[in-house]
TrEMBL record:
Any Pfam family the entry gives: ELFV_dehydrog
GO biological process, one term: L-glutamate catabolic process
Keywords, comma-separated and alphabetical: NAD, Nucleotide-binding, Oxidoreductase
Residues engaged in binding substrate: 98, 122, 381
InterPro entries membership: Aminoacid_DH-like_N_sf, Glu/Leu/Phe/Val/Trp_DH, Glu/Leu/Phe/Val/Trp_DH_C, Glu/Leu/Phe/Val/Trp_DH_dimer, Glu/Leu/Phe/Val_DH_AS, Glu_DH, NAD(P)-bd_dom_sf, NAD_bind_Glu_DH
Assigned protein family: Belongs to the Glu/Leu/Phe/Val dehydrogenases family.
Name this protein carries in UniProt: Glutamate dehydrogenase
Binding of NAD(+), residues: 222, 253
GO function terms (MF aspect): glutamate dehydrogenase (NAD+) activity; nucleotide binding
Length: 448
């Protein structure tokens, strides 16, 4: 059975690089994509740009804590399966660890380390008092029943124990998880503390259903943050969004909300893709109807409003905007050469690998990097956490206004840094984040 509100971000990665085997051998060794090294390389480039002090670079080069948990779950047929879960806590200098929990068959420790590090940069860039964390469980959430999914979630939460908490480490939804997952995590955690504290720990997770302590505006927040960045980019480039076109890879929470919100600004989505395949519609998809279809069916497969195409054909579709909202390592050299667009807004984390990025920049295609573009999610998660701490409930208009102000400020700061230092926006975003973290380390110094 499918999980409730399944995401559509399980996609084939960009081809991995192949290297010859030893002399005399006919084998080809496939070199794994090292996502953590990619993130660290960006860290090094930004560190050189701002002359980051070496002791800060050393501290940030590895996570503070790496947890690997093997936990048993009884399945519907009575079988007991052992699941492997991860929680990486990268840095908590600025505040509690913060980051999503991913359910996916390809979850690895190194990927979770990379994502946790990126959360550190995002929070610092957005001036949010959080540090970076990330978690995951290695399995396919679409292959289990809703009851099994709940037991996996509750058992993983229980196994994490005091390694999470509203003032220590705060999970949120990610690929393969959603608000229902967070409700189960919160309920499990609240039953692990004393009865007198049950009501004070709602902030242990964010991205909860509104009725269970979540905030209005959270579901669309990541996609909305991407839209705010695109609006600022269009002003900077004197580009009219109305009448423009977009292609979207991944039509889960981020991609679908991005398409729906942009449709109100006159942007037409002409190609979409997810784990079930790709399709095009030169006249433009009805983003609302496609979003409803994916929520009901679990993927874009079978949607009557488009023509199926191959992955290669999808990347060759001409559009003004390309929005990768799936997994990391989707745009390699081949995809970068195929893409014909003006701007890429990274709704996913790490969708563009370095080789692909080099080609895109050489072609003059602007990139709104993940560290900036998709940080609307963690920003509104922070607003949810604040509401939980204060026992408040903000209107959607209040949340939207605060998010727009925060994203607009961050975009302009990144653009200005990029101009001053003559670097691309990704290095600029990293550089700003590192400078803010460095300032605190220099003030507090090292204990003891």
């Amino acid at each position: 059975m499918k999980s409730p509100d399944p995401t559509s971000e399980t996609l084939q990665a960009a081809p991995l690089s192949a290297v010859p085997a030893a002399a005399g051998s006919s084998r080809t060794i496939v070199k794994e994509y090292d996502f953590f090294k990619v993130v660290q390389d960006y860290l090094d480039r930004a560190a050189r740009t701002i002359n980051l002090q070496e002791f800060v670079r050393t501290i940030l080069s590895q996570p503070k804590n790496e947890l690997i948990i093997n936990f048993p779950v009884k399945m519907d047929n009575g079988e007991v399966r052992l699941f492997k879960g991860y929680r990486v806590q990268h840095n908590n200098l600025l505040g509690p660890f913060k980051g999503g929990v991913r359910y996916h068959p390809s979850v690895t420790l190194d990927d979770v380390k990379a994502l946790a590090a990126m959360m550190t940069w995002k929070c610092a860039l957005m001036r949010i008092p959080y540090g970076g964390g990330k978690g995951g469980v290695k399995f396919d959430p679409h292959s289990v029943s809703k009851g099994e999914l709940q037991r996996i979630t509750r058992r993983f939460t229980h196994a994490l124990g005091e390694n999470i908490g509203p003032e220590y480490d705060i999970p949120a939804p990610d690929v393969g998880t959603n608000s229902q997952t967070m409700a189960w995590m919160m309920d499990t955690y609240s039953n692990m503390v004393g009865a007198a504290n049950k009501q004070s720990v709602k902030g242990v997770v964010t991205g909860k259903p509104v009725a269970s302590g979540g905030t209005l505006g959270r579901a669309k927040a990541t996609g909305q943050g991407c839209v705010i960045c695109l609006v600022e980019w269009s002003k900077e480039k004197n580009f009219n969004l109305e009448g423009s076109t977009m292609t979207v890879q991944g039509f889960g929470n981020v991609g679908s909300h991005l398409a729906v919100i942009l449709s109100r600004l006159g942007v037409s989505t002409v190609a979409v893709g997810d784990h079930s395949g790709y399709m095009v519609n030169p006249e433009g998809f009805n983003a609302h109807k496609l979003q409803d279809w994916v929520l009901a069916k679990g993927s874009i497969a079978g949607y009557p409003g488009g023509k199926p195409v191959t992955r290669e054909e999808f990347f060759k579709v001409k559009s003004d905007i390309f929005a990768p909202c799936a997994l990391e390592n989707q745009i390699g050299e081949a995809e970068a050469r195929s893409l014909d667009c003006k701007v890429i807004v990274e709704g996913a984390n790490g969708p563009t690998n370095p080789a692909g990025e080099k080609i895109l920049l050489e072609k003059g295609i602007d990139i709104l990097p993940d560290v900036l573009a998709n940080s609307g999610g963690v920003t509104v998660s922070y607003y949810e956490w604040v509401q939980n701490k204060r026992s408040e409930s903000w209107t959607e208009e209040e949340v939207d206004a605060k998010l727009e102000k925060a994203m607009t400020r961050a975009y302009r700061e990144v653009a200005e840094f990029a101009r001053q230092h003559k670097v691309d926006r990704r290095v600029a975003a990293y550089g700003l984040a590192l400078a803010r973290i460095e300032a605190v380390y220099k003030e507090r110094e090292i204990f003891p």
